[in-house]
Write a structure and sequence with these properties.
Oligomer: heterotrimer
Helix content of chain A: 25-40%
Structural class of chain A: alpha/beta
Strand content of chain A: 5-15%
Shape of chain A: globular
Chains: A alpha/beta, B mainly alpha, C alpha/beta
Order of helices and strands of chain C: EEEHEEHEHHHEHEHEEHH
Radius of gyration of chain A: 22 Å
Distance between the termini of chain A: 44 Å
Distance between the termini of chain C: 26 Å
Structural class of chain C: alpha/beta
Number of strands of chain C: 10
Largest sheet of chain C: 6 strands, mixed
């Protein structure tokens, strides 16, 4: 019965791209954020409570530029669902148990495990240990997991489900706040009680990579092709990208969709791309398929000037499978990629913590960083609430953060407003690995930041369904205690 | 013109792979009569093995190829023949199909155990990067090799079949196995040879296609669907026509890629389904197959009895009530599908068990039911569930009508093609209009489903939905039993045995077939609707072909003709397996092979597992006193559990203990009773027949069937 | 009642029936004999529609049914038994007969009591003792009777019986012969393929001999028995191609 589902690759592509939409081209960030931009109001209080930790010369409980994220304390009281004198039960959603692709988004659980072990070793948050409850939605049981979390968990942190549109009514109705690693659906993005550390956007598009390509390859922007998977989510991104490209004055010469589950050969696509005279290609899909496409292009000896992929293509599989055919492939990142760990202490610490607590964990997967950032945001907020850990206090604290980098893991974001980040890093894939191209000009640490990096796009039809608001379920924010 | 030429070459390289794979399929089918659904899975497995040798361990390509293709692939074919297929003589078509489908599921599970699926396995093509200039385009060495190998395979097969002694016997075997026997060839040797060659060809296809795709067990195994279409062109017999089919399909795919407008979502999604649609069309022009006449069907399924059905229906409802009152919500949620998908399993009973038809698309019909509930059950309207049955039944009819004159393997392929067309195409479409009808499918990927409200009762919790599903399950079970007792049911069962005889009585076979197909699809739709409510939201991934196959397999393993097999499948797949998988990853891995192994084992006992079980518990069932006491004791234990006297583990152990004690008591009492009686002449006790007692007609019949007089006569007639 | 005119059937290069003609008048038992592979069963298949003749016509009760499907022909009143038993193995003896009666009641405007008809036939063919047995639990001889019973339940005007006596012992065969005479005397045309010569000679009004797909001889039992061609076909060169 645990048969593999045929469209495993479909789902992978789906998820990968959803993740991409979610974070509007997540990228890495860097350390430019040297400062603890984290303006969780309670940071000071936290420092006070965690003074033991702070005194620790090793800085136990510090992460990146955040000091005393975790540490001992004397918080007490069963102040909310899932909270006792010495424990806070927190749920994390993932789809790792999906039989069609075992381990789908496993990094969300992995990052949660690493964070909680590290944090508890440091003394917990104000002395309360964090208990991670893995809520495995297995792709299609999202709603059921939300229902369970409503009854048992204090909050949802550091997770996300591919089909997260399905449980929003339940989640908002039971007043369960979430600090997600990513949000896939427009339904989720429009819903209440969410503080996303790397907020996505529906009407804005991260265009840092397009700007970069526009400048570097001005002669190819009149011969642009678009290739995407056949699924609603990838088609949605493709439409946004086309919209953005039109804004920049690019012209489309080729457009196609592939079916990730059943393509028997990529040669037809390569031939079609060639016949159309495509010089630059915008690709929305999974990295393994991208590698296959690149090889097919190489097989017919056709060389694109550039190929723009989502940050999900920053996957070792692209290099392994694509080999020498991986040329002129670009992507933008809002989370600092792991290959830049040596230039970014927070990334280094993240990788070190994995080495220490979960050596076999998925430390390179992009969503793990988002997840860890969510946990940090959560911890800061809890700390600020002292003993009075209620859903209302913690959510409001997290939701009022205006400048956030996850301790330096990613570009500065605005959880409070949910505005898309204005910063990104350009990454180029080569046969030997990923690198930042030499001509990329960072102006803010590792990142290039500018208002121009974001373009307004129309919300594709069907994606504009509003999310679930408190009013729509007959509640107000005052009901959140 | 250049473009045309370019895509012609693209198409021909695709054709090469299809031709290689499909000719192996045709070879085994034609010589052994077994349509090997696992053919693609063998290719997948060999491709994985080749990856392991060549890239995992870094051995030189010639050695890796020799081991994978020269040793492993034929060995897999041989083992399959010796160990599995040989036991299938005299079994029905459904049984044979199940065995090969199980083999596919089993091979996929095995590959996933050996090669952890979440890792990526890069595989380079042969002579990667080298290419030849051909007219206006280039062709890689790999593509050239593919086409070349296809030509060699064509020539090689011709040589094998026409120039070698074994080959000539193989061709004779195609026409008439008995003839081969009379000619002095050993059919077993022929079968072994053709399985070995078939395995080899599957392996060649796998090794050639895997490097240009992702090395992934499920989709590689299903690529075969495209090759099936080619095989159907050859009517599963002619290898030259199969090559023609492969060329048609390859070219179609090539031209679609070249000329289909890329900006239309409806059309873009259509291309991958093209091969499947060609398969469907090819099936339509397959000439009328011979009507099935009686072959020595070993399966036997007695009609359900009234007490048996009462016991089962009551038991199901009681079990559901006990579960919801003792288990926590999380467990109730995870065991929810026992009854809802159990109904989908039940839907196979009239179709496969009674009528002897085959459908691999039951879960797809369930998906249609789920869609109906999602779109029309808003706010809890029971209309959703009604329409679930109606829509699914109509879909079933639409699939069935064009292919209803076909049966057996063709029907299996047609339904599989339908399921794949849904997976790859229809389920992914945005909303569309068919004339005045607006059709909504899954839209963005997942749909919200409201729980149903019936007679003012809201079934909005997992507990209430489980009880509702159990009641529905019991009702459907009774309905199916009623069908079996009815005139229509008897006709279906009669058709299963001999369509020819039914037709000579004046029965138009089309309508009973379409009727039972629609009924069965409708039942599956209801199951899918209930399942959707339990899930709360539905996505197409829940309803695809590969997910549905284990249901089909386990129902047949249970004994398709028995209503109990629906319960068996539901409780095994969605109760016992998830439960035991919870003990640890090792158990989960073992369980992942369950349906595959169980199906493969079916050849040994074609009537299935349920009769074995039923026979075992007969003493208990017949002993009213012990049965009553057992029920009372269980009720007491249950009452104590409700009073929180102990926890679930104790409860389960106590219930088990009561059952065991009751069983032992019943067996002992039955022994005591029968020991006084004279020894009843047992059918199995032929040794003494005619000596201590006169021959009975039953014993004579057994001797006759044992001697297989009919086929001897047939052979001598020939 | 049944007229077969110049029917040929070709399997690939093999001519299984070569312009065979035969007629079976109502109220009579017509015998069809011939060595193995002569084409007897092929002829039955051509008459009932299991295969389509390459040329020639089949006329039942004045209707040309040559191109029609099996069930249409059956509705003109043809019914047959099979050389190899085609019993419904999942059903009992009674149910086997009942199914045939039920099927008939769907197309004939005959809304009689099918249960009563079934019981009547069980008695007529003498299967009362085993009526509730599964058909696989009875010997072949009785299986032949079940097939006959099923055919009778269709109330056919033309009965084709393919080696109905094989597997029966002498006593059963004798009883079977009586039954056939009874059926024919009620007005049906019976066409009997049989190897048991004594049965054929006892009950048939006319006998046709088929060899290598061709009609060899026709006549009364006595005439046929004396025909040298027939003797030769049976005793001489028995060239048995696949039937």
């Amino acid at each position: 019965m645990h048969s593999r589902l045929p469209n495993r690759r479909v789902i992978a592509a789906l998820f990968a791209v959803l993740a991409l939409v979610a974070s509007g081209c997540r990228s890495g960030d860097d350390a430019e954020t040297g400062a603890s931009d984290t303006s969780v109001p309670a940071t000071d209080a936290g420092d006070g409570d965690g003074s033991d930790t702070a005194d620790d010369p090793a800085g136990v409980g510090d992460f990146g530029d955040l000091e005393g994220v975790c540490g001992p304390g004397d918080a007490a009281g069963a102040t909310a669902t899932g909270v006792t004198d010495d424990e806070i039960k927190v749920g994390t959603i993932s789809d790792a148990g999906y039989t069609g692709r075992p381990g789908l988004n496993q990094e969300l659980f992995d990052a949660g495990k690493v964070f909680t072990q590290w944090c508890n070793d440091a003394g917990g948050i104000n002395g309360r240990t964090i208990t991670l409850v893995e809520r495995d939605a297995k792709l299609t049981e999202y709603k059921q997991r939300i229902t369970e979390a409503c009854e048992q968990d204090f909050m949802l942190v550091g997770g996300g489900g591919v089909f997260d549109d399905s449980g929003q009514v339940e989640r908002v109705s039971c007043l369960l706040p979430e600090i997600p690693a990513y949000q896939a659906s427009s339904q989720s993005r429009g819903s209440a009680l969410i503080a996303n550390p790397v907020p996505p956007s529906l009407d804005e598009l991260q265009a840092v990579a397009m700007r970069y390509l526009d400048e570097r390859f001005p002669e190819s922007t009149q011969d642009v092709g678009f290739l995407t998977g056949t699924f609603a989510s990838t088609v949605f991104i493709d439409a946004q990208l086309q919209d953005g490209a039109a804004d920049l004055g690019w012209s489309k010469v080729y457009e196609a969709q592939y079916n990730p589950a059943v393509e028997t050969s990529w040669t037809p696509f390569a031939q079609a791309i060639k016949s159309a005279g495509t010089r630059g290609l915008v690709y929305s899909g999974e990295s393994e398929n991208l590698a296959a496409l690149l090889r097919a292009l190489d097989d017919i000896d056709y060389q694109l000037d550039w190929l723009l992929a989502g940050s999900n293509a920053m996957d070792v599989a692209l290099i392994e499978i694509g080999g020498d055919a991986v040329r002129n492939v670009f992507m933008a990142a809002t989370v600092v990629p792991s290959f830049l760990a040596d230039e970014n202490p927070a990334t280094r610490q993240y990788l070190d913590l994995f080495e220490q607590y979960l050596p076999d964990g998925r430390d390179e997967a992009g969503l793990g960083y988002n997840s860890f950032s969510a946990w940090l945001l959560f911890a800061q907020a809890v700390k600020s609430c002292d003993s009075d850990v209620t859903r209302g206090c913690v959510f409001n604290a997290a939701k009022s953060v205006e400048d956030w980098t996850g301790g330096g893991l990613h570009a500065p974001t605005h959880p409070a407003t949910g505005k898309l980040t204005r910063c990104g890093i350009i990454v180029e894939a080569t046969p030997t690995g990923f690198e930042v191209p030499d001509d990329f000009e960072a102006n803010d640490g590792l990142f290039a930041c500018s208002e121009d990096n974001v373009v307004a796009v129309t919300i594709p039809e069907g994606a504009a369904d509003g999310g679930v608001t408190l009013e729509s379920v007959g509640l107000t924010i005052d009901d959140l205690e | 013109m250049d473009k045309f030429l370019v895509f012609t070459i693209v198409g021909l390289t695709l054709s090469g792979v299809y031709a290689i794979v499909a000719s192996g399929l045709v070879l085994t089918y034609a010589t052994t009569g077994i349509f090997n659904f696992a053919h693609g899975a063998i290719g997948m497995f060999v491709a994985f093995a080749y990856w392991q040798f060549r890239f995992g361990w870094g051995w030189p390509a010639p050695i890796a190829l020799l081991l994978a293709l020269g040793v492993l692939a034929p060995a897999i074919g041989l083992v399959i023949d010796r160990v599995i297929m040989r036991g299938l003589r005299g079994t029905g078509e459904a049984t044979r199909l199940v065995v090969s489908i199980s083999l596919m599921v089993g091979l996929i599970a095995l590959a996933n155990i050996i090669w952890e699926p979440s890792r990526s396995r890069p595989m380079s093509t042969f002579f990667q990067g080298r290419r030849i200039k051909v007219f206006v385009t280039t062709i890689t060495y790999h593509q050239a090799i593919t086409i070349l190998v296809a030509l060699v395979v064509a020539a090689g097969l011709r040589w094998l079949l026409y120039r070698t002694r074994s080959g000539v016997s193989m061709r004779a075997n195609v026409d008439d196995g008995t003839l081969t026997l009379l000619n002095g060839a050993r059919p077993s040797r022929i079968a072994g040879l053709s399985w070995a060659v078939g395995g080899f060809l599957a392996g060649v296809g796998g090794v050639l296609i895997a490097p240009t795709l992702t090395l992934e067990s499920g989709s590689l195994s299903l690529l075969i669907i495209n090759a099936y279409a080619a095989a159907i062109f050859g009517r599963l017999r002619s290898i030259p026509l199969t090559f023609v089919g492969a060329i048609v399909i390859g070219l179609t795919e090539g031209y679609l890629a070249g000329y289909l407008p890329g900006d239309n979502r409806y059309l873009a999604a259509f291309r991958p389904a093209a091969a499947v649609l060609i398969l469907f069309v090819a099936l339509l022009v397959v000439p009328n197959p011979r009507l099935r006449d009686r072959n020595h069907i070993r399966e036997f399924f007695p009609a359900p009895t009234v007490p048996g059905m009462a016991l089962m229906a009551g038991g199901v409802i009681i079990a559901a009530v006990v579960m919801v009152t003792t288990l926590d919500t999380v467990s109730v949620t995870s065991y929810g599908p026992v009854f809802s998908l159990g109904i989908v399993a039940l839907s196979l009973v009239p179709l496969v068990g009674f009528a002897g038809q085959i459908s691999l698309a039951q879960l797809s019909f369930a998906g249609i039911g789920a869609l109906a509930v999602a779109h029309h059950g808003i706010g809890g309207s029971p209309l959703g569930l009604v329409l679930a049955a109606v829509f699914a039944a109509v879909a079933g009819m639409l699939v069935a009508l064009p292919v209803m004159r076909l049966s057996g393997i063709y029907l299996a392929l047609a339904t599989a093609a339908f399921a794949v067309a849904l997976d790859r195409w229809l389920f992914n479409l945005p909303d569309f209009d068919v004339g005045p009808v607006h059709v909504s499918v899954f839209r963005s990927g997942s749909l919200n489903v409201d729980p149903i409200t019936v007679l003012g009762l809201d079934f909005d919790s997992p507990e209430s939905l489980m009880v509702l599903s159990a009641v529905a399950f019991a009702a459907v079970a009774v309905l199916i039993a009623g069908l079996r007792w009815s005139r229509f049911g008897r006709q279906l069962v009669a058709m299963r045995d001999s369509e020819a005889a039914c037709a000579t009585f004046g029965l138009n076979l089309i309508w009973p077939r379409v009727g039972v197909f629609a009924l069965s699809a409708g039942i599956a739709g209801v199951g899918g609707g209930l399942y959707a409510m339990q899930l709360g939201s539905v996505a197409p991934a829940r309803f695809d072909l590969l997910t549905g196959l284990p249901v089909f397999i386990v129902v047949v393993v249970g004994g398709t003709g028995l209503v109990g097999s629906g319960l068996f499948a539901g409780s095994m797949l969605f109760g016992v397996l998830p439960f035991t998988s919870g003990f640890g990853p090792v158990f989960a891995k073992i369980n992942s092979t369950f349906s595959g192994l169980a199906g493969i084992g079916l050849g040994r006992n074609p009537s299935g597992a349920v009769p074995v079980f039923a026979r075992a518990v007969r003493p208990l069932r017949n002993d009213v006193l012990v049965l009553g006491s057992m029920g009372a004791a269980m009720a007491v234990v249950y009452a104590l559990r409700l009073g929180d006297a102990f926890a679930n583990w104790t409860f389960a152990v106590l219930i088990g203990l009561v059952a065991v004690v009751a069983y032992v008591a019943a067996v002992v009492r039955a022994r005591a009773e029968s020991s006084g009686d004279a020894v009843v002449a047992d059918l199995h006790d032929l040794d003494w027949a005619g000596i201590t007692a006169p021959w009975t007609p039953q014993q004579l019949a057994r001797v006759e069937s044992g001697l297989d007089l009919d086929s001897v006569r047939q052979a001598s007639d020939a | 009642m049944l007229e077969v005119n110049d029917v040929s059937v070709r399997f690939g290069g093999h001519l299984a029936l070569d312009r065979a003609s035969i007629s079976a008048p109502a109220g009579q038992i017509t015998g069809l004999i011939g060595p193995n592979g002569a084409g007897k069963t092929t002829l039955f298949n051509a008459i009932t529609g299991l295969l389509t003749p390459t040329e020639g016509t089949v006329v039942i009760d004045g209707h040309d049914v040559t191109g029609q499907s099996l069930h249409r022909r059956a509705r003109h009143g043809v019914a047959r038994t099979f050389q190899q038993l085609e019993l419904f193995t999942m059903l009992t003896v009674r149910e086997n007969i009942r199914v045939a009666a039920d099927i008939r009641s769907r197309w004939a405007r005959d809304r009689g009591d099918m249960g009563a008809l079934t019981e009547d036939i069980i008695d007529r063919v003498g299967l009362r003792d085993v009526a509730d047995e599964r058909v696989t639990a009875i010997p072949t001889g009785q299986g032949r009777l079940v097939e006959l019973g099923r055919v009778l339940a269709c109330k056919p005007r033309v009965l084709l019986l393919d080696e109905p006596a094989s597997g029966q012992d002498d006593r059963e065969t004798e009883r079977f012969g009586e039954l056939l005479v009874e059926v024919a005397s009620s007005g049906a045309a019976v066409l009997l393929v049989e190897h048991d010569m004594s049965l054929v000679m006892d009950v048939c009004d006319t006998v046709h001999v088929l060899d290598l797909g061709r009609m060899l001889a026709s006549g009364t039992p006595a005439e046929v028995q004396a025909n040298p061609l027939v003797l030769d076909a049976y005793l001489g060169t028995d060239s048995g191609g696949a039937a």
